[in-house]
Amino acid sequence: MREPVIEFKDFSFQYFSQAEPTLHNIDLTIRQGEKVLIVGPSGSGKSTIGSCINGLIPFAYKGEIKGSLRICGEDTGNMSIFDRSRHVGTVLQDSDGQFVGLTAGEDIAFALENDCMEQQEMKETVKRIADMVDMGGSLSSSPFELSGGQKQRVAFAGVMVDDVDILLLDEPLANLDPATGKTAIDLVDRIHKELDKTVIIIEHRLEDVLYRHVDRVIVVADGRIAADMTPDQLMAADVLKENGIREPLYVTALKHAGIKVTEDMHAGYLDTLDTDSLSERLKSWNSSQKEQEEMPLDDEILSLKNVSFRYTEKKPIIKDVSFSIRAGEMVSIVGTNGAGKSTIAKLICGFVKEDSGDILFEGSSMKGLTIRERSDHIGYVMQNPNQMLCKPMIFDEVALGLRLRGVPEEEIQERVYKALRICGLYEFREWPVAALSFGQKKRVTIASILVLEPRILILDEPTAGQDYRHYTDIMEFLRSLNSLGITIIMITHDMHLMLEYTTHAIVISGGQKIGDSTAVDILTDRGIAAAANLKLTSLYELAIRCGIDDPQSFVRNFIDYERREERNESKAF
Question: What's the confidence (pLDDT) of residue 396?
C-alpha cells in the first residue's frame, strides 16, 4: 500500500467570522497516486477541506483549528505557505483569477522565474509542460484570446511546472461547456496516469467527473464525511439523494424501472454497467410508458429574421440567424463558449444593434425601440447577481426600475410587494441586500425585472455554480414563473437543465443556428452534439447499450415520467 500524502485526524475548523465550526472531526487519508473526488452540497465544507490542503487556511482565511493535518508526512502547523505550495498545486474554478502573466507562456513560467531558473532551461521546461497539456502552440497568446478550456489548460500547466505532488482542482467544470468539460476530465486522467500524481477534484457535477475513473468518492455533508466509497458502492447506496446531490441520470433511470442498484452491477460508470442483465427490464419499462399528448402552441412572441452582427469589420459574431419562440415557452439557447449565445440576448434587449435582419416582438419590428422601451416587454438577468445589484436595501433595489419610470410611490409599494411574494422574498423586504445568500440575491435580481411586468425573461446561466438543491430551487421557481404566462429563455451550458426543464432548444455554433427542435431531439443527435460541444445524455447512451429500438423514446419517456412524479409530489404536498 502506498504512503499517505494527506492525513486529516480528528480535524475541525471554525472561521473566526462564524459562530459554528465548518468542519467537524474529519478523519480522512489520501494516498500517493490516488484520484479522489470530493462532492457535497453548497455550504457542506468541501471547499474548506480544499483550502486546508492548499494552505489558504490558515494563511488567507483565519480561524480555529483542532486536530491535525499532515501533508507528505509533515505536520502543516510547521509549514509555511511556500512550503505548502511545493507540494500542492491548485487549479481554481475561475481561471481568470489565476492568471499573472501577459501571455500563456509567461503565466506558465511564473513559478520558475520565482525559483530563479536559468532562462534556457526555463524555456525548455515551459515548452515541455505546455505540450503535455496541448498548449505548446499558444504560448505567445494573451489570456484574453484564449477560450475557457484553453485558460484551464494554462492553469494546469502553471501548477504542473513546479512538479508538485498533489493536484487540487476546485470546481474545474463550472465555466466550461459540456464537451470542453469532457476534454478537461480526459486531461486530468492523462496527467494522473502519466505522472502518477495524487489528484483531488472538488466538483458537484458528479456524472461528468465519473466519465473517467476515480478511486474514491468522498461525500461531505454538514462539515462531516458522510461517505467514503468507490463509485460502484456509492451508486448502490442512498447517500447521494439523502445529501441533496444529483445522481447520474442513467442510475435514476434504472430506479424508475424498478431496478435495485447493487454494487456488483458496476453502476459507478456507464461504461462498466452490466447492461446485459438489465436490458429486458428497461425495455419493458419503456414500452409500458404512455406517450404524452402535445399541448397546443400559442402565437409567436419573439422572432429573429436573418439577423447578423459583428463587433469589428473582420469578425462576424452572428451570421444570418433566424428562429421563433412562442408565448409561454421555456427555451434553452445552448452551444460552445464564444458561440454567440450571449450576443443574441444582447441583440434582443437592444444592448447592441444588428447589422442586418430584424427582431420582432409579437409580430412588430423592434428596430425603433430604445433599450428602456424594450425592457417594458423583455427582462434580462445576468449570471452574476452582484453585477446587477446597486442599492443597499432589497425594497429599493426592486423598486428602482419603477422609480426611474416615474411610477407613483403607492403603486410602487404594491407592485414591489407582489414581485417579492412571487420570488419568496416578502419576509426579507426590509433587509439589506448584503445579508442574502447568492441564490437569494439571484431572486432579488429576478424580482427587480418582474416588477416591470415583462412578457419575456432572459436568464444567462441561471444555475451556474449551484449545487443540486439550489439548482432545483431556482429551476422550480422559474417553472412557477413560466406557469404565470411569462416566456422564459435560458442561455445555458447545463444539459440536465435543458433536458429536464425546457421543451424547446436552439443550438448556436460559430454564430450560426445549427439546431432548433425539442431538447430530447438535440441531445440525441450526434452530429449537432459534436458541432456545438454538447454531450449526448447518458440516458440515450444507456438506451443504445440496452438495445432499445427507439432510444429517443426512452429519453422522452424518462423526462415525462420525472415530470409526472414532480406533479404528483406537488399535489401531495
Answer: 95
Torsional sign, CA 466, 464, 476, 335: negative
Percent of the chain with pLDDT over 70: 96
What's 294's DSSP letter? P
The closest alpha carbon to 245, from 237, 256, 253, belongs to 237
Out of 101-110, 137-146, 274-283, 544-553, least confident range: 137-146
Radius of gyration of the chain (CA): 25
Q: Is 86 helix (H, G, I), strand (E, B) or coil?
A: helix
Which has the higher per-residue pLDDT, 178 or 110?
110
List C-alpha distances in Å: 523 to 205, 285, 514, 560: 18, 21, 13, 16
Contact 343, 317 (CB under 8 A): yes
Tell me how far CA of residue 434 lies from CA of 387, 393, 394, 428, in angstroms.
13, 8, 9, 12
Contacts of 216 (CB under 8 A, 6+ apart): 34, 36, 37, 228, 229, 230
**Rounded CA gap, 512 and 333, in Å?**
12
Please, where are the H alpha helices in 350-437?
371-375, 394-404, 409-422
pLDDT band at 570 (very low <50, low <70, confident <90, very high): low
- Widest distance between CA atoms in the chain: 74
C-beta atoms surrounding 265 within 10 Å: 20
Instruction: Please give the pLDDT value at position 361.
Output: 95
3-state secondary structure (DSSP) of residue 81: helix
Taking the C-alpha atoms of residue 7 and residue 4, their distance in angstroms, rounded to an integer, is 7
- As a whole number of angstroms, the distance between CA 44 and CA 22 comes to 8
Mean pLDDT of 76-82: 91
Average pLDDT of span 232-256 = 92
pLDDT above 70 (res 567): no
Question: What's the distance, CA 312 to chain centroid?
Answer: 30
Do 488 and 454 form a contact (C-beta atoms < 8 A)?
Answer: no
Predicted structure pTM score:
0.82
C-alpha–C-alpha distance, residues 208 and 205, integer Å? 6
Backbone angles phi, psi at 500, to 5 degrees: -85, -25
Nearest to 142 by CA among 189, 94, 190, 102: 102
Cα 525 off chain centre by: 22
Residue 258 cell numbers, joined: 424498478
Spatial neighbors of 553 by CB under 8 A, at least 6 apart, are 286
Q: Which residues pair with 170 in a beta bridge?
A: 202
> Nearest 5°: CA angle at 482, between 477 and 487?
130
CB-based burial label for 87 (10 Å; 0-12, 13-18, 19+): buried
* 3-state secondary structure string across 162-228: CCCCEEEEECCCCCCCHHHHHHHHHHHHHHHHHHCCEEEEECCCHHHHCCCCCCEEEEEECCEEEEE
CB 223 within 8 A of CB 45: yes
